[in-house]
């Protein structure tokens, strides 16, 4: 049997592409050597956000219950049970996995378990079976490069955290991305002493500097120590007597969590596919250097976010089918599940400055929003970057408890090239947190007049 499309990898890039391919009538197979859903579903996006929610609830009960009028709780006896939090997380994973399997089957996608090898631009082998296809879609994701060490009881990969039942008092997280920051905050929320070691000069390098600097202040308020510009390749050289020694600084360390920047996880292949650093090089259509072989999701290095990977999958399948489609990275949001959450879309200030674009900023604090105050989640703000002459929305940045949900409104505005005047005229229900869009934009109406 010859397929129209073979997809290697079943994460958010692969399974979304497969379901779409089935919907539009492409004969499709998806090859997965481990678990359906990839990193995101099995130990990344979903379970990590689940345990963060558990930690946030624990922290809120522990510190805010009395202020909400809930009395009688002996906060001294409250503790965080990581095993139960993990159990809840993986019940969610199981439910979502079954849903994906159902949709693959419903849309006629063949699921093949095994490790794929690309043998040509139109063939793949798996389980000693040769499969011919018109198109190949690589969606194998990324991995965290391992730290050299013999202290395997101390150095832990993120995917192995869920095997733990208890954690020591002193936790060290290594990395600069939102994943590293989220992990550091999770442990701080459950009363651990946390140090974040950052290999770069800044945290969250994909975020606008204003957001990154704001997050540094939040981490310091959370009593998380941050050590910048420190690269670690050999753990054993810096670790001794339950301490990490760096630049005359002794950091207590009972557990070291590796959350450094990821690299492309490449499928086996006997054909040469051009690379761009640690990732597969692709053109604007997500096609690799080999015609008919595409790479989507973080394996191509253009984005690290699951929803962008899914969008790329839809885009490529539509292209293969001949359905008109386009893809603009500026119109896809970035989401970070920190506390408060961080989200942004469009251009950053540095990008606008580099382009010589004249812009203005409309900002509004969550501390003046009625709904946020009632929820006790009034930490944060919204910033709208707009073109100075006509007011087109060029970028939105949000720090708020529900920033990753709120950013969808900004995405809708930017998709239709709205101005801040359009945003200001949009009626928002009261009381809602989304009113911050309207309030921030009101200043722009005054500016125009």
Short overview:
With 449 residues, this protein is of the alpha/beta class. It contains twelve helices and 27 strands. The longest helix is centred in the N-terminal third of the chain and has 25 residues.
Detailed description of the structure:
The protein is of the alpha/beta class. It has three domains: 2-143 and 263-330, FAD/NAD(P)-binding domain (3-Layer(bba) Sandwich), CATH 3.50.50; 155-258, FAD/NAD(P)-binding domain (3-Layer(bba) Sandwich); 340-448, FAD/NAD-linked reductase, C-terminal dimerisation domain (Enolase-like, domain 1). 33% of the residues lie in helices and 23% in strands. It has twelve helices and 27 strands. It has helices at residues 12-23, 38-42, 45-64, 82-106, 178-189, 209-221, 306-321, 349-355, 370-375, 403-415, 420-425, 435-448; strands spanning 2-3, 5-8, 28-32, 110-113, 117-120, 123-126, 129-133, 136-138, 142-143, 155-157, 170-174, 193-197, 225-227, 239-240, 243-246, 249-252, 255-258, 263-264, 268-269, 275-276, 279-280, 293-295, 334-336, 341-346, 359-365, 381-387, 393-400. Strands 1-7-6-5-19 form a five-stranded mixed β-sheet, with no helix packed on it. Helix 1 links the parallel strand 2 (5-8) and strand 3. It is globular and about 65 Å long. It starts with a strand and ends with a helix. The model has no long low-confidence stretch (mean pLDDT 93).
